[in-house]
Amino acid sequence: MRLPGPLVRIAPAVGVYIGLHVAGLVVLALVQDKGPTDLLSVLGHRYDSLWYERIANDGYGPTAPKSYAMFPLFPAMIAVLAPVTPGPTWTAGLVISWIAGIVAAGGLFQLGKHLRDARTGLLLVALWAVVPHAVIEVTGYTESLFTAFAAWALYALLSQRWVTAGVLTLLAGLTRPSASALVVAVGLAAGVAVLRRWDGWRPWACGVIAPVGFVGYIAWVGLRTGRPDGYFWVQRHRWGAKFDGGVYTAQAVWGYLSRKSDLAFYACAFVLLVALVLMVVQLAERWPWPLVVYSAVLLVTVIGTAGYFHSKGRLLLPAFTLLLPVAAGLAKVRNRNVFLIVGALACSSAWYGSYLMLMWRYSP
């Protein structure tokens, strides 16, 4: 049986993504050495995954208001898929995350190909699969699902498929708070198109549809908590997270780098510093401005929010647009050197992923 044309085109990217993650999971399994059941539990039944499972089983009521920090689409999908998935409820979350990662790989490939060429798209997928926190892409977290929506939304936006971009942004807005960056990027692009009278009614539709998921959920939490800033109140008073413009993050980076600290703190400081450098490179190379806006808003959100320093590397996983300059640069390098670079990154990512999932004492 032949695969449809679009699937054939993204098949190499999907193969690269799966291959790199299988290699990482083999390393994780060897380090853990307790059997496949325990490995699945490590991937799908810890920290935030437990919250999604509770919401999928019982809704927001029993754990409110703290559970309001978790956006609804992922647990809703778990609730739908769990009855037909072998094993406990949380295994459905793993299945969704794995499928979403593959879909995200296809979107990243198409985005890189659209902007440069197929080689750049393939390398963008490979780089995303070997960043330090890449193991999260195959856990019961929302990063893969959100990245799938975001990658295809940005590709649709650059291809002027306005309604598709709006719908995907709406879905991303129901997935995780990182959607604020996508809503701003897509909304601004739609606004520019409206002002310049491009493509008729479609940019109007995109601009109206795009923020509905994100704004709608924030408004719903406001109604449930009885205060318009309910979602942000929950983040601050139940999770200890608030926006301070980056003061906490700057102090944390300096503090951890100037004294002996745990590896996870060093890794997050490294990821943040590299992300800032890549942001400057992206600006200097003049990539399409909606991508720059998406990168910038996401980076400002992560750096500007106080608390959970050890999770900031994970929170930057959806900032795949920052990897575009690296992918484009590697596309000009000889195959042998590319294999060496990606291979080295894959080994370090697999090792760090094993540390993060098996030895680190907090949420990844």
Automatic annotation (TrEMBL):
Q: What InterPro entries does the entry give? A: PIG-V/Gpi18
Write out the GO cellular component annotations.
Answer: membrane
Q: Can you say where in the cell this protein is located? A: Endoplasmic reticulum membrane
Please tell me where this protein is predominantly located.
endoplasmic reticulum
State which pathway it belongs to. Glycolipid biosynthesis; glycosylphosphatidylinositol-anchor biosynthesis
Q: How does it sit in the membrane?
A: Multi-pass membrane protein
- State one molecular function term (GO): GPI mannosyltransferase activity
Keyword Transferase in record:
yes
Which GO BP terms, alphabetically? GPI anchor biosynthetic process
Transmembrane parts of this sequence: 6-31, 90-109, 121-142, 162-195, 204-223, 263-284, 291-309, 315-331, 338-358
Keywords assigned: Endoplasmic reticulum, Glycosyltransferase, GPI-anchor biosynthesis, Membrane, Transferase, Transmembrane, Transmembrane helix
Q: Which PANTHER family match?
A: GPI MANNOSYLTRANSFERASE 2 (PTHR12468:SF2)
For this entry, the protein name equals Membrane protein
Lineage of this protein's species?
Answer: Bacteria, Bacillati, Actinomycetota, Actinomycetes, Micromonosporales
